[in-house]
Amino acid sequence: MSASGTQGTSGHGRFPLDALSVLPKLCKPKSLEPLMNIQFSNITPAIPGFAELKLQGMVEGLNMLRRLEENWLNGQNRFDMPGEKLLGAYADDLIVGACGLNIDPFTKITCTGRLRHLYVDTAWRRNHVGSGLLSEILKDAGLWFDFINTNAPSSVFTFYERAGFIALCDMDKVTHHFCLRKQARWYILALDAAPMVSCTRRLDHLLICSTGQN
After folding, report:
1. Do 188 and 207 contact (CB within 8 A), yes or no?
2. What's phi and psi for 93, nearest 5 deg?
3. Whole-prediction pTM value?
4. Alpha-carbon torsion 58, 157, 181, 137, what sign?
């Protein structure tokens, strides 16, 4: 997207109107290169290696695994509702990443999941571990959810957008949205008559995924 927000695209911006023709292609995960020696398994914060992974994130100023552990221990979130899961990525029996999927507690829209707490060991980044976790989380998520939301830090916006997530602007607790519905089509709902401009402005149009029922 240009500075004016009227032409082109960017890794972090809202899609312009002339990009709508490609949006249906983004409603399914992109293919990933095979991961070598990486295994995925259900985990809890009590597993060996989780504490070290959590501390590494905290040193980086990233507290997602600390919050995950706290909410697990106090019973607030144990990823035990239908469709929910908490996965770890393992390399030679060492946990090198984690990611969770919940029913989204911040929306009234049914069948919406929330991707949470995705973190990868710094030594294993750029080795498709994050993409592998994301693919594994989404693999059967369509059995339970139509949409997946996430609230990502700006440093990983490009990661999610390359995986097919759509960037949303000025949405509370949501930076990106992924469509899991089959035969879905994308379109814009105008919330007012203001033109689409840069993401620094209030969200004037909401990008949603629909089965086509009007």
Report:
1. yes
2. 70, 10
3. 0.71
4. negative
